[in-house]
Amino acid sequence: MSILDILKSSHNQMPETYKHIPVLEMEERVRKIKEKFGSMLFIPGHHYQKDEVIQFANTTGDSLQLAQVSAKNTECEYIVFCGVHFMAETADILTSDKQKVILPDMRAGCSMADMADIDQTERCWQVFQQTFGDTVIPLTYVNSTAAIKAFVGKNGGATVTSSNAKKMLEWAFTQKERILFLPDQHLGRNTAFDLGVPLEQMAVWNPITDSFEYEGNTEDVKIILWKGHCSVHENFTVANVNQIRADEPEMNILVHPECSREVVALSDYAGSTKYIIDMIEQAQSGSKWAIGTEMNLVKRLIDNYPDKEIVSLNPYMCPCLTMNRIDLPHLLWTLEELDSGNVINQITVDDTITTQATLALERMLQKP
């Protein structure tokens, strides 16, 4: 059944009554079900989730980290993944057959992951083979669909995270002359630039027009960047940086590498979500920080470290809308259905896709 079919099914839509339950009552009902299921139930929560959900998470982290922790938790039978669709897919790929991965709201997708579908990728690969021959290796950010991970695995490539992207690009260049980087052009560009690849040797592939966006000689291309982006991180701008510099010149600017090259270049620090959290945790008391990442996490850092002055780099930034589909009513509904013996919104990845996607993940995980 496709995601569209699932969304059309009324069985997989939360009843309106859940929207009108008092918060304290919902919280108590969730607690009781968690206590009843004990170790059979595991709730991983992504850093970008709302506090109303995070309070019930057994662990918090980035997408791959949560999938790995879920796989290691062999006692649990039900994994209610509080994140987005591609994260739950990765969890299903890594967990055992006896474990069921559930997404509380099937509408919780990722705009970046959706910017690269398998049909577009297969078409572009044919063009690359004709243009460059067998000189291209694909890498995909873990923020991608299982089908894209499988494509990469089948074609000798690997997945990357924002923490290990530099290491994985270095490895990829030992395999082939050129790299196709999916689906986030900004992470690919920032990482390649840090490795010394000049911008003039980076081309952008537009999957809508099936064409390169590049003015030079294609023989000079070393990095092919898929034209995708994070809708949250792309909203941090050079104007935001300039405003902070003008208003608060002593403030440190710390951003995620999914931000544009221009923003990263003007910032003081750039790194993964874990890097951002660790940087703030280790920062001196009284230090000042403007952070360019998802708003739920920024607000949590503000609450957790009151001894430091922390603001969002973009004062008008909204939380990730798709990530915020997972809320307390959906979590309660999912758990109460589970308590009634109904496993709803289960995420299952086809066996063939799982096998090929696992190749891509294992190639990354095997690197020291």
Question: What is this entry, summarized?
Answer:
The chain is α/β, with parallel strands linked by helices and 368 residues long.
> Structural class, judged by helices and strands?
alpha/beta
Order of helices and strands: HHEEHEHEHEHEHEHEHEEEHEHEHEHEHH
Mean pLDDT across every amino acid position = 93
CATH superfamily of the largest domain: NadA-like
Strand order across the largest sheet: 7-6-8-11-9-10
Radius of gyration using CA atoms only: 21 Å
| Count of strand segments | 15
Report strand %: 5-15%
What is the CATH architecture descriptor of the largest domain? 3-Layer(aba) Sandwich
CATH topology of the largest domain: Rossmann fold
Biggest sheet, open or closed, and with what strands and sense? 6 strands, mixed
Per DSSP, the total helix count is: 15
Our count of domains comes out at 3
Report the principal-axis shape. globular
Catalogue the unreliable spans.
1-10
Could you characterize the architecture of this molecule?
This protein has 368 residues and is an alpha/beta fold. The chain folds into 3 domains: 3-108 and 322-350, Rossmann fold; 113-230, NadA-like (Rossmann fold); 233-312, Rossmann fold (3-Layer(aba) Sandwich), CATH 3.40.50. Helix content is 42%, strand content 15%. The strands form 4 sheets. It has a 6-stranded mixed sheet, sandwiched between helices.
Secondary-structure blueprint of this entry?
Blueprint: H1 3-8, H2 23-37, E1 41-42, E2 44-46, H3 51-54, E3 59-61, H4 63-72, E4 78-80, H5 85-94, E5 100-102, H6 118-132, E6 136-141, H7 146-154, E7 158-160, H8 165-175, E8 178-182, H9 185-194, E9 202-206, E10 211-213, E11 223-226, H10 238-247, E12 252-255, H11 261-266, E13 269-270, H12 273-282, E14 288-292, H13 295-304, E15 309-312, H14 328-339, H15 351-365
Parallel strand pairs: 1-4, 2-3, 4-5, 6-7, 6-8, 8-11, 9-11, 12-13, 12-14, 14-15
Antiparallel strand pairs: 9-10
